[in-house]
Write a structure and sequence with these properties.
Blueprint lengths: L6 H9 L6 E5 L27 H10 L1 H20 L4 E6 L7 H14 L11 H7 L4 H25 L6 E3 L9 H7 L7 E4 L13 H11 L2 H9 L3 E2 L2 H4 L6 E3 L1
Parallel strand pairs: 1-2, 3-4, 4-6, 5-6
Helix pairs in contact: 2-3, 3-4, 4-6
């Protein structure tokens, strides 16, 4: 998140770990822009921050020509900010998945050659493994699965035309904030896609940080020896987006 308060520190840490694959988490709601607010008045509130509602933002992109023009300015500004870090761009995804909006995705595809965007996250998760682990709120999960499927269908076509890589499946979407060791041990034997991404929010506990406990639990799950043993037992090769083009068998990126 190139406009986040800790963006410079995060980039410095990433530069000290050259094997780490780092992507741009595009922020278009619930955050601050990379552009001067005066250049994108249709996208921001009076205090210069983005609006809170992704639904309202999406409708504005769809029906306002002015908002679409300003959106291109802001997406370019965030890509330029990432480029200034000097880090190779692994992929692009978006806060609250707003990068899947057809207008946003079209702009990313247009800018892909200029900014060397190699991959974009296209969420799509099988309902079977999610419901096998947790049968709560099935109607909500079915509805989100249908929404993601529709958006992905449009995105696949655009991204194939732009030669942008994407995963066959993204697991963990229905388990946001609750990717535990038990969940991963349940999921791994059920992964059927060749190129899969694991969606998680691991974090070290920090006083005052939101979702502190959840992030710590997800971090513990990702480094669990039992999970590593299960990965090896399933013949899954851990990879970054950059390795997806080479993957002939099951591979997973996180």
């Amino acid at each position: 998140m190139v406009t986040g308060a800790a963006a410079d520190e995060a980039a410095a840490i990433a530069r000290s770990r050259p094997r780490l694959a780092v992507g741009l988490h595009l922020v278009l709601v619930r955050g601050r822009p990379a552009s001067p607010p005066g250049t994108i008045p249709s996208l921001v509130r009076g205090d210069g921050s983005f609006r809170e509602s992704p639904v309202a933002a999406g409708l504005r992109y769809q029906f306002s020509r002015r908002a679409r023009a300003e959106l291109r300015i802001e997406i370019r500004a965030q890509l330029e900010a990432f480029r200034r870090t000097g880090l190779p761009l692994s992929h692009v995804d978006g806060h609250l998945h707003l990068h899947l909006h057809p207008v946003v995705l079209a702009i990313l595809c247009d800018l892909a050659p200029e900014f060397s965007i190699p991959a974009v996250r296209l969420p799509a998760e099988e309902l079977g493994p999610a419901l096998a682990f947790d049968r709560s709120a099935p109607a909500t999960k079915i509805a989100w699965a249908a929404i993601f499927r529709l958006l992905r269908r449009h995105g696949e076509r655009r991204m194939c035309e732009a030669r942008i890589v994407f995963a066959d499946r993204v697991y963990g979407l229905f388990q946001t904030g609750r990717v535990s060791e038990r969940y991963l041990l349940s999921l791994l034997p059920r992964i059927g896609a060749g190129r899969s991404e694991l969606y998680a929010h691991p974090a070290l506990p920090e006083p005052g940080e939101p979702r502190n406990g959840a992030g710590a639990e997800e971090l513990a799950a990702l480094v669990s020896p039992r999970v590593r043993e299960a990965i090896e037992a399933q013949g899954i090769r851990l990879a970054t987006y950059g390795r997806f083009g080479e993957a002939a068998g099951p591979a997973a990126a996180g």
